[in-house]
Amino acid sequence: MCGVLTGDLGVAADWTAKTNHVPGMELRAPYTLFAEGSRGHIGKELIDRFKLDEGRDPQHYALGIKELWQVSPERHRPGLVIHGSGWPLTDAQGGFFMYHGDNQQLAVGLIVDLNYRNPWLSPFDEFQRLKHHPLLARYLYDGKRLAFGARALTKGGLNSLPRMTMPGAMLLGCNAGTLNGGKIKGIHTAMKSGMLAADTLFNSLTDPQINHQATQAHFNRAFKASWLRKELEQSKSFIPALHKLGPWLGGAFNYLHHNWLGGKLPFALHDRTPDHVRLEPADRHSKIPYARPDGVVSFDRLSSVYLANTSHHEDQPCHLRLADPQIPLQSNLPLYQEPAQRYCPAGVYEIVTQAGEPHFQINAANCVHCKACDIKDPAQNIRWTPPEGGSGPNYPNM
């Protein structure tokens, strides 16, 4: 790895150069650190190119959906934290949260594991249904939504963690998968991976005798000796237990494993089935009857996307690219009733009728960059790439 190449600017939707076209810049470096967050588009290619996941379990993901609310003083409880799991997710695993912050604001959200089987499931609509639960709704009535967002979480843990080094580069944070799935916390672990990389490269760059192989070995030793490795080791069976045993047995296993045994069982559980493979044909499942949003606590996709402050240049190539444009209609529609219409929380993908025939439409300007499509598409046909010029959502205080 010798560096990165930035994207071209001023390219029209048909890939022709516009009058303001600026070619991408070649940024070369002795070492390049990739910290793109969950399902990084370059990180995904690096893992495949350098076979960094060889011998590891497949990576696993969840989709987190979150809203920021302004509520009335009598409904605000500064410092109140609510965590829960179960309802409304009868066809998926996951959990919800509500955090009361400062200035009469609170954050509410739902995390849905992307290994679910029912293609009729819509994480966005599950979230809207969640907010009607009396435990949460009593704080939201008379409130006002300020922001909406969604993002994937890399949660496979140590069993799915790829090698983080390669010649001339390192894969860090959630781009690799350093999130602690047991705590659903990843900022501190991502920061630690960056600190280990900084210490390693400081030595390498100040001593010209240290080559790429020695640099990789130094980082791997430092990682193995760090509290980061120890923390991930203790929680490595947490997510596989829930996936393999379900919320009740898996929850009991995790309680005993973490609270009584300190995460030190002599064996580890594994989930070796990729999330997208779990999806089953639509005719094996019943359609989920989601209620219409009431405009008070629950809302539709388009009004939510508006609150994500997403902005994309309209005349640019679509950043959501299909390896085979025929698959959505020829395969995904008859088998799964095209699940992209439901797993995308922003209404990017639609089946519309044109001249009496179904047409797969991509509303790329709606994209909130959650990466769910890149992860959950059963044919792995959708590739998320960065849009031009930093386009996308702009999350205030999220």
TrEMBL record:
<keyword id="KW-0285">Flavoprotein</keyword>
<dbReference type="InterPro" id="IPR036188">
    <property type="entry name" value="FAD/NAD-bd_sf"/>
</dbReference>
<keyword id="KW-0249">Electron transport</keyword>
<comment type="function">
    <text>Accepts electrons from ETF and reduces ubiquinone.</text>
</comment>
<feature type="domain" description="4Fe-4S ferredoxin-type">
    <location>
        <begin position="358"/>
        <end position="387"/>
    </location>
</feature>
<keyword id="KW-0560">Oxidoreductase</keyword>
<keyword id="KW-0411">Iron-sulfur</keyword>
<dbReference type="InterPro" id="IPR017896">
    <property type="entry name" value="4Fe4S_Fe-S-bd"/>
</dbReference>
<protein>
    <recommendedName>
        <fullName>Electron transfer flavoprotein-ubiquinone oxidoreductase</fullName>
        <ecNumber>1.5.5.1</ecNumber>
    </recommendedName>
</protein>
<keyword id="KW-0813">Transport</keyword>
<keyword id="KW-0274">FAD</keyword>
<keyword id="KW-0408">Iron</keyword>
<dbReference type="Pfam" id="PF05187">
    <property type="entry name" value="Fer4_ETF_QO"/>
</dbReference>
<dbReference type="Pfam" id="PF21162">
    <property type="entry name" value="ETFQO_UQ-bd"/>
</dbReference>
<dbReference type="InterPro" id="IPR040156">
    <property type="entry name" value="ETF-QO"/>
</dbReference>
<dbReference type="InterPro" id="IPR007859">
    <property type="entry name" value="ETF-QO/FixX_C"/>
</dbReference>
<keyword id="KW-0830">Ubiquinone</keyword>
<keyword id="KW-0479">Metal-binding</keyword>
<dbReference type="InterPro" id="IPR049398">
    <property type="entry name" value="ETF-QO/FixC_UQ-bd"/>
</dbReference>
